[in-house]
Amino acid sequence: MISNLRDGSSVALVKSTRMITTLLVEYRAYDFGDRWDGLVEEVLGELLGSPAAHDTEFEARLRRETLDGLSDSLRAKTEWDNDGALPWCESSRMGERWAPMRNRDVATYEVEVGKLPEQRSQVIRDVYGEGRSFDQVAAERKLPLRMVKRFLRESIWDLRERCSQATGPPRDNADQRVKSCFKSLELDLPAFLVEPHLDAWSEFRAHYPVCLDCSVVVSNWSAVELLVRAACDGTHRHPSADDLIALHRDGEGLAYSQYVLLMRHLDGCPPCGEAMTLLARYDGRSFAQALIKKASERRRGAASSRKPQSRLALVVARVRARLGL
């Protein structure tokens, strides 16, 4: 993969971009959505610019660089102490959580979605398969809005329970530890997935990215939601890189039906959407050199912004901080 990227392969650009964005989706890094383009460029630039990088370690390097970039964004947004690593970066648990979505996992969810009570199955397919809003589903199905949301919460919970033995994220006692973080909050993770932007979740939204237990649990539940979405609309079956490249090049060689299906897929698939963005910006042989140059400029800028301090001064500063001086 890395050698193909260095050669300017658009196919390699699509595949690697989808891998990075899939990781961002699993970590629910939506608060940094405006940074995704830049983050993908940074990760690819670091990979391409490393003389030690080669294909055998590509995925491991990609995961590490993506987490590092996301951690930097989080530090900048929350004024996190730059001298300390984020909890999920200190542990291999988060780094090992991600793996490409497997078709057999999605197939299990497809079967279980079909076993849900008819109304719940219809609602979950309307939302995750057809991309309809809660209000649209409520109007079309002649259901109260609160019932639509309840059906979604209950379905996500039931599907996780039914599929946990056959597939899906590993279960541990992190769910219970999360409750200890928010003893005064009635934590309902399926409700958080259904309506993550409610004011009631503001404290939890700010907390979970910097808490190892909470970030693991959100990642686990997010993986369930991704599997449910894939089971309902087939987004796990990414179009080929060649099809995305053809679509980028004004649909060259695509039948109209293919074009319609690709556009519908892109509407609900951030990894493929991000790949199209990068294609529009870097299609052609020059993208590798451009990304390496950007990564180099960013490193120089970061180095020049640091205030020079002696080792003794750094030690004194840390001791003073610990003593509250």
Summarize the model shown:
This protein has helices at about 1-5, 10-25, 35-50, 60-80, 85-90, 90-95, 105-115, 120-130, 135-140, 145-165, 175-180, 190-195, 200-205, 210-235, 240-250, 255-265, 270-280, 285-305, 310-325. With about 325 residues, the chain is an all-alpha fold.
Description of the structure:
The chain has 325 residues and is mostly helical. The protein has two domains: 138 residues, no CATH class; 131 residues, no CATH class. Helices cover 69% and strands 0% of the residues. The chain has 19 helices and no strands. Helix 2 crosses helix 15, helix 2 runs antiparallel to helix 17 and helix 11 packs across helix 14. The radius of gyration is 22 Å and the shape is globular. 34% of the residues are buried.
Major sheet: none
Query: Secondary-structure element sequence?
Result: HHHHHHHHHHHHHHHHHHH
The average pLDDT value, as a whole number, equals: 73
Envelope shape:
globular
Helix content: 55-70%
- Work out the number of β strands: 0
Task: Give the uncertain stretches in residue-range form.
Answer: 82-101, 168-172, 307-311
The assigned structural class equals: mainly alpha
Classify the oligomer: single chain
**How widely separated are the two ends?**
51 Å
The total domain count is 2
Strand content: under 5%
Total helical segments? 19
Rg (C-alpha, Å): 22 Å
List the helices and strands and how they pair.
Blueprint (H helix, E strand, L loop, with lengths): L1 H5 L3 H17 L9 H14 L8 H21 L8 H4 L1 H4 L7 H13 L2 H11 L5 H8 L3 H19 L10 H8 L7 H6 L7 H6 L4 H22 L7 H8 L7 H12 L2 H13 L4 H19 L5 H13 L2
Helix pairs in contact: 2-3, 2-4, 2-15, 2-17, 3-4, 3-18, 7-10, 7-14, 8-10, 9-10, 11-14
